[in-house]
Amino acid sequence: MKFIWNHAYLLMALTAIAWSGNAITARGLNDIIPPVGLAFWRWVVAAPILLVIAWPHLREDLPKVKENLPFLLVLSALSVAAYNTLLYQGLLSTTAINSFLINTLRPSIIVLLSIIFFRQGITLLQSLGFSLAFIGTITIVVRGDSSRLLNLDFNIGDLWILAATVCWAIYTVLLKKRPKMHATSFLAFTVILGILMLFPFYVWETIFIKPTPLRVETVGGVLYLAVISSIVAYLCYNRAVEIGGANKAGQVSYMLPIVGSGLAILLLGEKFEFYHVIGFPLIIAGVYFGSKGK
Description:
Elements: H1 2-5, H2 8-28, H3 35-67, H4 69-90, H5 96-102, H6 106-118, H7 124-141, H8 146-151, H9 156-174, H10 183-208, H11 216-244, H12 246-249, H13 252-268, H14 274-290
Helix pairs in contact: 2-11, 2-13, 3-4, 3-10, 3-11, 4-9, 4-10, 5-13, 6-9, 7-14
């Protein structure tokens, strides 16, 4: 376990596997559980488990929470409240495969924000990789039809996924400045803050849109998301950013299409379309060149 905890690429691989199930579960349950309800209950179930894991460090880190509360609120809003809710909203009207491939845009946004905020640069070869991945992503978003780009005719679900992607990219870059806290207590505090932010939206959705039903599918989906896609994935990802940097950790987005698309085809019966065939090789090329250098 200690060996894995100190190797960024192993942590990134575990994160990709855990997160692949996030979109697969949300897409599979999109006609049962509404987006805010799924995000809310995911974190409500995860919170007690996190508190138990983080308990030895909570008292020591509490003063740091008080000192950095505004910044922690921003991180929590971006990662816990906004990202998953926007992702689940998008999956109401787009495919899981599209969500995986659109998420590959994250590294390009992360690098751009790193340059703007912290003046972190990249090599020419890495720039080529990110550019290829960006072109591949745009190909997916416009379904291989350039006229959609000219007419701004996009699938609304894809745009929700893009919004979620931007939120996560900002979160990743800002993690560089997070308070020096134990990883488990940091995640526990951000999750609690996120739940508080989601609660009024959950009440609104329950009253005016649709309540979250108590069914076998609901319980199973929420438990998977709470343990695997939440606790395991976030701990691994935050640690990968801590030891590898935001730019390297952002390459998790390149691993998701490979793992996630396979699961979407196997479990959801989704199909690889012609525009996927065009965009996917560009993304893979971006993975190769983007991973070169530090």
